[in-house]
Design goal:
The chain is of the alpha+beta class. It has helices at residues 17-33, 47-55, 112-123, 136-144; strands at residues 8-11, 59-64, 67-76, 98-105, 126-131, 148-154, 160-167. A seven-stranded mixed β-sheet has the order 1-2-3-4-5-7-6. The longest helix is centred in the N-terminal third of the chain and has 17 residues, at 17-33.
């Protein structure tokens, strides 16, 4: 990340919905351009999903000056999608955890994932995240920032996701 760039992360408001939907569209395009044509299809995440994230206070916006350059959801568990894991196990099944969902970033912005993970790791000691097998960019970043691969989870739509967990070193 360019050390001159200082991102601000704040809770998203309903006034940010249009910017977040623009970022969702950009994220879909990045995934498609990199061979991941099956994640975030059929209108997912929808405007209703993002609005619900905002209304629940779990949606965050990454801002560079006045420009929205990324977004994500950080919500406390338990998350029903993470109740069962196949071909592996969670690193820590005892302590409460948070889940990161729906990460977006503008293609022109660099270091967004680093800013998001840095923020989340300051807020939480135990974080879970998942991604599609074909999302090679996200898989690389997740591992680069200290998450361990734990196994496979099944989403509510029946599709598999690779699941990861980060726990604060003791």
């Amino acid at each position: 990340m360019n050390s001159n760039i200082q991102y601000t992360i704040r809770k998203a408001t309903s006034a940010d919905l249009k910017d977040i939907m623009r970022l969702v569209k950009l994220a879909r395009q990045i995934m498609c351009d990199n061979g991941n044509t099956t994640q975030w299809t059929n209108g997912y995440p929808s405007e209703e999903t993002i609005k619900a994230d905002i209304d629940s206070g779990t949606c965050y916006l990454v801002v560079n000056g006045n420009d929205a350059v990324g977004s994500f959801v950080l919500k406390p568990g338990p998350d029903p999608t993470y109740n069962v894991i196949y071909d592996g196990q969670w690193k820590d099944e005892c302590r409460p955890y948070h889940v990161i969902h729906r990460i977006t970033s503008a293609p022109s912005a660099h270091g967004i994932f680093s800013a998001i993970i840095g923020y989340c790791q300051k807020e939480c000691d135990n974080i879970r995240i998942d991604t599609h097998e074909k999302n090679t960019i996200m898989r690389h970043l997740i591992m680069k920032y200290g998450f361990d691969y734990c196994g496979i989870i099944i989403c509510s739509d029946g599709t598999d996701r690779l699941a990861y967990q980060w726990t604060k070193p003791e």
